[in-house]
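As the next step, I selected for study a record pairing a protein sequence with its backbone structure tokens, which the following lines show:
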Amino acid sequence: MRARLIYATLLVLALPYLLLHLAVRGWRQRAYWRNLGERFGRYRQHATKPIIWLHAVSVGETRAAIPLIHALQARYPDYQILLTHSTPTGRDTSLQLFGASVWRVYLPYDYNFAVKRFVRHFKPVLGMLMETEIWPNLILTCHRERVPLMLVNARMSVRSAHRYRWLAGLIRQSLSSLYAIAAQTDADAERLRQLGGERISIMGNLKFDSTPPLAQLQLGEQWCAAFGSRPVWLAASTRAGEETLVLNAWRQMQPGKALLIIVPRHPQRFDEVAKLLELAAISYQRRSSGAAVASETQVWLGDSMGELFAYYSAAHVALIGGSLLPFGGQNLIEAAAVGCPVILGPYMWNFTEVSRTAIASGAAIQLAAAEELAGAVSGLFDDPVRREAMSAAASEFSRAHRGATDRVLTLIEPLI
């Protein structure tokens, strides 16, 4: 009871910040100002079919959900799939991936009145929260309204587990109220169990079940043909401050005719990275220009959405962003799916288990510090035999870990 009171107080205190956050983010990215009513449980859609609801916060979770959503649509064609998001980029990604075949709205903030409106408006037959989404009021409302709610593709890092212990009683009550928890790994399952989770199974990671779209593989092949014999290094999903480290390594390498591709994690940073390249007096082009990459271009700025598979398939080596600085890293599974050798920075705590397994399989190498980056990339550029071995290991690593989608379908089958 005390933890719930603290949580309710924090929500009240957070309201001015949330409104300010929307105002500031909306100034930079106008999509934040659209559909504001949904943030507080106001919706226009009215269902004529039973609803299966899945919450995917942003781009990464939405892409991870691709195989599951396709499987649900194939198995339950008489049901409406509802996707909820927390960010405009997640929402835009689901529109790009699924079009009108799914509904998409924002999940309301975790205020009692807002989540009650959401649950009572859509009346889902079941709900699935992706990865690490523990919202106490939402979970309690679903429990009271008899909506089975699961945590799927669930992961729980050491850091996240430590933060959740500040509200241990409330988190324990929330996790124990879930119909089921399908964790990615044994380590995730154990941390969730220590926090109070029950009915936990191991499902693996949905991202391993994602099949690279043929159109993107073909696009990657077109780029490779256009690049010719140039070695290509991809810095994928980079975060603020990492591009500077990447460019420092690039200069140390004296790369000659090699091409560096930088794909920032967040689209609102595309212009920021372009200015960084201009200030550094580096010859660069933007993907959004549509122009072929010139032979004198040193850096190609990947300012496009939804083409990460193509970038990975065109690269000889890929650095996984978010790992050079303490952001916790991004997922390497998409790179492995197309057989791209991977370099990880020292900070991969968000993906500890998948990183450990990829390194052990020979699909990835990890740096002890960002200063090692130039040497690691140069070493792989100069050793095609090792690159080929890492590529083969990455493809095998990807194949060996498939099957999570079928495990989730088995879990939800008794409910539909």
